[in-house]
Write a structure and sequence with these properties.
The strands form two sheets. A two-stranded antiparallel ribbon has the order 1-2. A two-stranded antiparallel ribbon has the order 3-4. The chain is of the alpha+beta class and about 80 residues long. The protein has one helix and four strands; from the N terminus they run ββββα. Helix content is about 30%, strand content about 20%.
Length: about 80
Amino acid sequence: MDDSVQVHCTRCRNVFRDRARRLQNGYSRQCPCCEVVLFFEETSPDKNIKRAMSSARGVCKALREEEMAGPPKAIRGTRRSY
C-alpha cells in the first residue's frame, strides 16, 4: 500500500505528495513549485489542508490495520546459522 497522500498547494494549486505519517498537527512543508510554506493543522480554514489531513488519517489507519493483520514477526533472539 502506498503511504503517501496528495497535497494541493493553496497558492499555486500544484499537487505534490507527502508521507501520511508526517502530516500531523504542527507539521509544515514547503511547496516544491512555489516554495510557500504550508502549515498542517486540523483547525485550518483551508479546505486543501483539511482534505490532506483527513486523507492522511485514513491512510495511517489502513496501514495500522494492515500491520495488525500481517504475518507474525519472527521471535527476537533466534538466529539461524547456515
